[in-house]
From TrEMBL:
Gene3D superfamilies: YheA/YmcA-like (1.20.1500.10)
SUPFAM superfamilies assigned to the protein according to its UniProt record, in alphabetical order: YheA/YmcA-like
Pfam families: Com_YlbF
Entries under InterPro entries matching the protein: Bact_com_dev_regulator, Biofilm_formation_YmcA, Com_YlbF, YheA/YmcA-like_dom_sf
Protein name per Swiss-Prot or TrEMBL: YlbF family regulator
Source organism, top-level taxon: Bacteria
Amino acid sequence: MTHLYSNEEILARAKMLAERLSSTEQVQFYKQAEAKISSNQKVQRLVDRIKHYQKESVNLQHFGKTEAYHQNEAVIDRLQKELESIPVVQEFKQSQEDVNDFLQLLVKLVSQQVFKKNQSTQSDN
């Protein structure tokens, strides 16, 4: 006989899993990289400038100022490249990819287990 879990039990187990995941090496490294980025003045200045130019681009595009829009987009591209060349940003991006890969693997494993469990309960019926 198969045990059916209540929503509360599932949520409690999911919360436990989330707590365990947050203490993994990958997630800890991501949190550290995020903290470094948040406290880096150069990174924050570049992010603020990019946001400013992005807002400006939206307005320029809205008013049909195509030449100014393209110039603005070129500035954004240059600022993005400068931002991405900073080692702490590269470290952060790598940690994001690592955590994402890790979470995708977990989702795949859980999905496979649910599918196997579902198949076995259907064959029992």
